[in-house]
Amino acid sequence: MASSKQLFKDEKSSPLCDDEEANCFIKGTKNAFETPSTTIPFKLISTSDQFTQMKEIVCYKNSFYRGLGFTFLRVISLGIFALFEWWFPVVRIIQYSRCSPLEAQVLDIWDICDERTLVPFKKLNLQDGTERWHFNYKHTTFVYEPDIHQAESLSHLRNVSLGELKAMVRNPLNAEQVESRRLVFGRCEFDLQSPSPLRILVEEVIHPFIVFQAVSIFFWFVTEYEVYATAIGVMTLTTIIFSYITTRQTIKELEELTSHRYEVEVTRTKLDGTTESLQIDSTELVPGDILTITPGMTMPCDVVLVRGSCIVDEGMLTGEATPVVKSENHQLTTTEMTTLTNTKVNPSALKHSLLYTGTLVTKAKSSGNLHTQGIIVETGFCTRKGELLKEMLHPQELSFDLYSDSFSFIVFFAVLALGAIVFVIKELSRYSPDFVFYRVLDMITVIIPPALPTALTIGTFFAVMRLKEKAIRCLAPSRVNVVGRITSMFFDKTGTLTEDQVKVQGLRVSQGATLGHPLQEIDETDSRLFTDKTAMCMSILGACNSILLVDGNSFGDQLELEMLEYSPYELEDVFSEEKQKWETHVVPSKTYRLSEFTSEWRIVKRFEFDAELRRSSVIVEKLSGLDKGTHHVFVKGSPEQIMELCKPENTPGDVHSEFSKDATKGYRILGLASRQLPSQFKEEDLQSTDRHLYEAELEFAGGILFDNNVKWRSKPVIKELAEANISSTIVTGDNIFTAISVGYETSILNPSAQVFVLSVQETPSEGVASVRFSKYNPGMSSSEGEEFTTSNAMTINLASNSVSDPFTNGWASFAFVMGGNTFSQLLALK
């Protein structure tokens, strides 16, 4: 196992260290690490969670005399001070005295929202004899490094190099290393630290308002308001019961969401140096363990695949029903190690081989009789699922008008009551002091409307119950009020508004200067349809995918499966005697007649789809026909991105306008391109070479059109939202004209609405950017459209959602449509 220093490395280059708001300071008295009247910088390193960013930390230790005085206050106040301590935990700080970090027992943490929290500061004794100070804040563990006066959130993946991970793959952990890591990282589970039912009940009973109500009820009984006091008592008891039930249900749902324990198989090293497979409880896993992955398994932690491939359902994390293919990370399985010794792990580069906690493994495949395996990189709240849970457990504070209005309401009546008290004391001065005292208390007890919290609690309870009837979980009942404030809904297109199933509607092949007509079917007997470009398009459709073969069946993204079925190819697993591993070959379908127009390909390397790049690609070797043995790169993706990567001289001049026309018909379009790699290309270079070097200087081959039908329930939902005065917007990575077509079909766009396509134009000579509004017409290209000029101006009436259309001289409802680049440019405009 790496030493404690290696486990908690300093990341001085973290961007958070340069963020003034993220800087955190530990304040204390003079000590060996600071000079007088200075503070010790306590910066958060590599902490992306907004709710764990801290502004200031003050160190405290126990003080005998302060603690004695604190206890005296509790006793002399007959427990009233203890109530205030429960309501305002920060009050406990008066029993401690400030100190240096190494003496600290309690930390007073101020976050960027000026919220204060007291947390214990503990010492951790590692097995190698070293000590580490740590604290847990909002389910995130931070480790303090006294030598550099800094703390960082605990993370295994961020503090290990690729070389160290590779060493763990080759030499699994032994018992001593496992225990040492468990001591540092804890058990592989989500410890919610849920309060007991008794504590929940106590918290409800001693709530400030309930205590006030209890005192008021006692007073009303003394003053012979028995009926009124009984009614208010019943309402208060109802409030406690409903609030208790709601809290318990919330905690129970969270526990059901996080409690998953089952037997798993791991590989570890025995005392004699040999490895063995063990069946252990999933909570006993630690980072660095080699985990065996089986179909039907729900991942208990974040794991990087090091052997085999998997198909996983990430719907729990992303909401997407589309299966995702994960493949082994070749950097951790190659024989070369020297270049990876000090290379930091880039989590984003592992996403295509990283199995996230809570995701379901539907299929698993490995070479020969070997098991599919992966190395554990994160456990507990350090995982991707853990980050989501922390956001649920510690939501950002929100301010609601209902609460502020209620407070203003109470303050208003408090002022009236104060005036009434003064009046009562003055007018009743001739009566006995007891009578005046009771009348004053009478005024005080009716300041807060007794039915107000009951109404709020019961209203929230029934709102949560109604949501539960519709299979909607509410893990933060106080957030139910947010629903009433929603004014806009933003929808993804594919799989949300439209069906997951797609169907190929045609292939448009480049014919040099122009783009060919859509080929909906290719007659196998008509060789005239097959040109070199057509054959290349078919090869791209068959090879450029992430489809996984399991027991002879193809699994993967529905769109890629449809592409493969449309092509004259099929996938086949072939065992390489030379490399002693299974490889995927793309071979002509046995039922296809025009075999002379097809070739056999071997998939060398897959570059998975990247949402930022909006494309995927594959490196293949040609195994038959002319140019046998040559290597090619096949790329598919967004037509705009593909055309940017292609040589202008090989791109048809009408491709923009033709694809735009197809998009206005609602088709989803993918661009296809390829290029032959130079003869000096070596497959070994793929491990250290960036994909951008291969995805350049491409030759445009064509595009494929898909019909993506709108779900039958999309239009009724949009209509219901519109009736509730909630606007709907489509956010998609597809062509904007495809989005417009879906917008009309789902009634997000009014059929009579005038649509304007926005773009930002810059004038280099003047250094000024202007916004261009183009009137949308079906069939227009992204560079076409009637433009508004100074003499042909338009007027927008935002109040009535209408526009003065200079082309029709009338008023009509309107909508704006823009691409991602335009949106980014608009945000950048000052």
Structure explained in plain terms:
This protein is an alpha+beta fold and 830 residues long. The protein has 22 helices and 38 strands. It has an eight-stranded antiparallel beta sheet with strand order 22-31-30-29-28-27-26-25, with helices on both faces. Strands 1, 2, 4, 5, 6 and 7 form a six-stranded mixed beta sheet that branches. Helix 11 (401-427) packs antiparallel against helix 12.
What's the short version?
The chain has about 850 residues and is of the alpha+beta class.
Radius of gyration: 33 Å
What profile does the largest beta sheet have? Answer: 8 strands, antiparallel
Q: Give the helix/strand class.
A: alpha+beta
Fraction of residues in helices? Answer: 25-40%
Major β-sheet strand ordering: 22-31-30-29-28-27-26-25
Taken from the alpha-carbon principal axes, the silhouette is: globular
Features:
830 residues, alpha+beta, eight-stranded antiparallel beta sheet, six-stranded mixed beta sheet, 22 helices, 30% helix, 26% strand, disordered N terminus
Secondary structure blueprint with pairings:
Elements: H1 4-7, E1 25-27, E2 40-41, E3 44-45, E4 54-62, H2 64-76, H3 80-87, E5 96-98, E6 106-111, E7 116-120, E8 122-125, E9 131-137, E10 140-145, E11 150-153, H4 162-170, H5 175-185, H6 197-205, H7 208-222, H8 226-258, E12 263-269, E13 275-281, E14 290-293, E15 302-307, E16 309-313, H9 315-318, E17 324-327, E18 354-355, E19 360-365, E20 372-378, H10 384-393, H11 401-427, H12 433-445, H13 451-469, H14 480-483, E21 488-491, H15 493-497, E22 503-509, H16 532-543, E23 548-550, E24 553-555, H17 558-566, E25 569-576, E26 581-588, E27 601-610, E28 615-622, E29 631-637, H18 639-645, H19 655-664, E30 667-676, E31 699-707, H20 714-723, E32 727-730, H21 736-745, E33 754-763, E34 768-775, E35 786-787, E36 795-797, E37 802-805, E38 810-817, H22 820-828
Parallel strand pairs: 1-4, 3-11, 21-32, 33-38
Antiparallel strand pairs: 1-2, 4-5, 4-6, 6-7, 8-9, 9-10, 10-11, 12-13, 12-14, 14-20, 15-18, 15-20, 16-17, 16-19, 22-31, 23-24, 25-26, 26-27, 27-28, 28-29, 29-30, 30-31, 33-34, 34-35, 36-37, 37-38
Helix pairs in contact: 6-8, 7-8, 8-13, 11-12, 16-17, 19-21
